[in-house]
Fold this protein.
Amino acid sequence: MTNITEASRILATAFTAHQLIDPLPADLAPDSFDAAYDIQNETLKQTGAKQAGWKIAVATRAAQEKIGSDGPLIGPLLDGRILGDGAHLTTNDLHFPNIEAEIAVVMASSPAAGTTPDSILDHIKSVHLAIEIADRRFHEKQNPMQTLADLNSTGYFVLGAEIENWRDMNFIGGTVTTKSNGEILATNNDPAAWPEIFNGLAYLVNFLAKRDKVLKPGDVITTGACATPTISPHGKIEAIFDGLGTVTAEIAKV
């Protein structure tokens, strides 16, 4: 049986001390997604960090099938780490900055359990362009369960411009490009490779309901990568959404 207390102590110490660690040893590592969530929840408590929203990862059905999950993987977004467009960070803030162009929502109210992708629309305040800068505490990339336990690789989040007329859904499926210092990191022009945004939100609501939690007004939720996540150690970061706008951040080398 996974030792949740000891596993979470190791991960929480790595997070708060900004240290890199080896993978959790076999007797501590999660052996299921449920165990990974238990470790994640306890790790968050031990860090003392305040949660300000949620991140949805592995947001396409094809990606979920590849890892044997029945839905996307969920993690926290943290207060003080949700930044505005043009945010400045340094290499002291991050180990392995994984750049992801994403669509984020800000909640207006709390959807009830059983919500559908259509009914959740009435609970959304606004929809935004965004960049997630994911990060891990492990020296090397780990399997999905260890990653999930490690706060689902939460790092920093850049909330960009609000998308006007988002209810018409015309923003979904366009070409998205990420860049670092002008060099292309990733491009996606395949609408089928976009995250299933509102399906993912409905999944999140029902995932939380099973754990006696709810989305709250003001919560920020990021809905999954719109182009392949790519590590960029430092530089001017851009997420370019054709026809919609651009979100930027700077990771300065120190």
Notes: The chain has a mean pLDDT of 97.
